[in-house]
Give the backbone structure.
Amino acid sequence: MAAKWWVALFLILMMHAAAADAQTAPEPIKYTLSFPAPQTHYVEVTAAVPTGRRADVELMMAVWTPGSYLVREYARNVESVTATGPDGRALDVDKSKKNHWRIATGGAPAITVKYRIYCREMSVRTNWVESDFALLNGAPTFITLADLAPRPHEVVINPASGWKRSITALPAMPGGEHRYRAPDYDTLVDSPIVVGNPAVYDFEVDGKKHSLVNVGEGGVFDGARAAKDLEAIVKEDRRLWGMLPYDRYVFFNMITESGGGLEHKNSTVLMTNRWSTRTRRAYLAWLQLASHEYFHAWNIKRLRPAELGPFDYENENTTRSLWIAEGFTDYYADLQVQRAGLQTRDEYLEDLSNTIELLQTTPGRLVQSAEMASFDAWIKYYRPDENTNNTSISYYTKGTVIAFLLDAKIRKATGGAKSLDEVMRLAYQRFSGPKGYTPEQFRAVAEEVAGTSLKAFWESAVEGTSELDYSEALATYGLRFKTAAPSSADRTPKPWLGITTRTDNGRLLISQAQRDSPADIAGLNVDDEILAIDDFRVRADRLENRLEQYKSGDKVTFLVARREQLVRIPVTFGSEPAKAWRLDVSPAATEALRRMLDGWLKG
Ligand SMILES: [Zn+2]
């Protein structure tokens, strides 16, 4: 009897628990996407929104999307937001903020919200709809409840006439094709969708399905070869990290004559040019782009700076660590392509040399630290102007160079036993998932692996703006910087001004003046129209030719038009800074140094 009584009590408790679950289990928002006239670039969205029987609900659209640090005001493309109750009667919609809508529900348990979005911005972080296909990103597409309480978001797609497939990394939902279910809003935002008739190439690594989804091959882009080479990159990254952190991964490759890439947890969107498998240079650039975005599946999507989560979709999320999240990703992007055997060592060293040269010829390296470049991405990196090179550096560029120096430093300190690869793995083990890492924690992991203090290095390379010291890295690998010797035909240094120019309706205009260059010192300004040197006319297409008539140290007078007034400016030509940043293997490198170089490049 006692036993029966306990069973009865247990069952009652279970029923209570189930009832409580039913009450608290968040109801999903259910979206339907339709494309009745895709040639007009619109997607029509219907959303069934649960209200929890509140008298009014506040809806929100994100203002930015993670991975691209700029407020983009996605709500500007939203039109005709309407809402109806269960009886089909219209409800009041009040636009309460730039990206908010407040709807009086009349006490209905669910309301239907409809809106349409203009989709004609070809970038990895926006939407595009045309007669052949649609690319939809989560943040600019889905209006959600502003409370952002955790709830599933379901998506049903009605493809336009003639479109056969929809592809996304979102989990499929039962009940037929084109039905998906995101467990939460973050996943919805992190899962772009392509609808149309793309060419799809599948391959498996570790029993996990990977898809290359090509939109716009046009019989030109070599999809089969690209998929085979992506497989080699996937295997190389798997070797570095020791595992693949997802069940399935999609490379969306939009062959749309645009550029860029954006990382997601289980997919990436790449944009490229139809001809990018035709020349080796262009193809390597595409592989490096894909390698970069794919590396993010670990570095930033799962191992991230603590400040980058949970995301605030309505305000800037600042972090001091993009030089790790983006810069180290860029370092490994190229290194892994080389380690996978898709790029030669010489090609790799050439690309690394270009990155070093870019940093070393950017005056802003002495103004902005890697940490501050990260922190100010929203107002500087993503909002460049004519003075950007003078006052800031790219956290991609400096982060790559820091990774190169730090990797060498760790290899040297441990006699080649440890490397930056271990740092990444250990950081992943400790900090992947929701907690993320602080700058101090990441440095502590690096110091633990190196077995030595990195305080001085961090203060100068990461937090500071002093010139980087390459000598240790060069000595570790037996590398050197090879100075390009002036050609024997003309040993006189070319005259140098330090400006870049553009032409506008036949006018020759200064578009940038480098800090402390001869032009900057003399007072040539951005937007000055160059008319003559020493009273001889300079035609817009003849500046290079005219400069060849002078040599470093010559004094001339520029005649420019500045805001419609003629101004004469004396200028003394300087000498072009030497290109001293070409890495190559020193002929004097010992066997031991060559083994160190091998260890780095082979991984
Ligand atoms: Zn990136």
Summary: The first strand starts at residue 29 and ends at 34.
